[in-house]
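Supplementary Methods, section 5.1.

A reviewer requested that the exact input to the structure prediction be made available. We therefore reproduce it here, unchanged from the version used in the analyses.
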Amino acid sequence: MTSSSASPVLPALAPYGWDEAWADAFVPYAAEGLLPGRVIRVDRGQCDVVTPSGVLRADTAFVTPHDPLRVVCTGDWVAVEAGGNPRYVRACLPRRTAFVRSTSSKRSEGQILAANVDHAIVAVSLAAELDLGRVERFLALAWESGAQPLVVLTKADLVPDPVTRSHLVQDVELSAPGVTVLLVSAVEGDGLDVLVSLVSGGTSVLLGQSGAGKSTLANTLIGEDVMDVRAARDVDGKGRHTTTTRNLLALPGGGVLIDTPGLRGVGLYDAESGVGQVFSEIEELAERCRFHDCAHTAEPGCAVLAAVDAGELAVRRLESYRKLIRENQWIVAKTDARLRAEIRRDWKRKGAEGRAAMEAKRGRRR
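The structure derived from this sequence is encoded token-by-token as follows.
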């Protein structure tokens, strides 16, 4: 059997991202009489799946592994039983990309937020003070997922001064190398045509804190009010969770959108390459350091510190880089005994060097 045998399902599922590659991957399941479909919502062991027969409710009991990163997620392509009550999901097709963060539990497990995503839209509200560190954190996870990040500065109508707008965009661009930064106002319509064009191909996921304007942005892209919208607090620009589940919707102009609940915590989860992508200028400078394992703190011949002293690298960027690197190492070390031991040895070495430096300083004073 070839992919051509699966082609009759293409017209029904094409708006949701079905293509020949997915048809090829589904061939073994088609032989078993299963239906292809994409998960548009997951809720307590049940999921809604859009199939050639319409939207079906299915149970995920047969595809619920112990690994939390392999559970059925919004955006997954799955094989569903053609009939039965209850109806079951029998298999998940291999994912192309996956957006993962660490949970708030002490076990530091990963939590998958969306699957098979092409564009990760980080929504940042201009109604509150910019938190560039949080933007960098979101971008690290986005790069690590395999998706192309995009930063959307929402509620631009609240910043009428064009000079201030320009400075805000520049600040974010300096913190997001290689990423498009778009200024958008759902009220005035600014930037929406560009955004629609960017998301018209592939699957996009909306990410951001509560009150970032994600639901308003989703309604604007969809062309109707399908997401509940609540006003943000005037005191800090934060809002309450209006989206409580991750929902996948086909856009009228093409493309697919996954709207997510507001994220209070955005913990890294094995995102070393993503952090390196966000701080690419620091990674490039580090290649010129005298020592290959330079920590960029006080080592002689450190090209990163030299760039800071020369005013070529902002201190805030270096501090943010150090913070995310440490956090990511700690998360990975919790499941990697060898790395955990290496970190402990490094801490002891640095502690000894610090004590020796203090003793030498005291000796010079005497």
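The domain at 98-259 is CATH 3.40.50.300 (Rossmann fold). These observations are discussed further in the main text.
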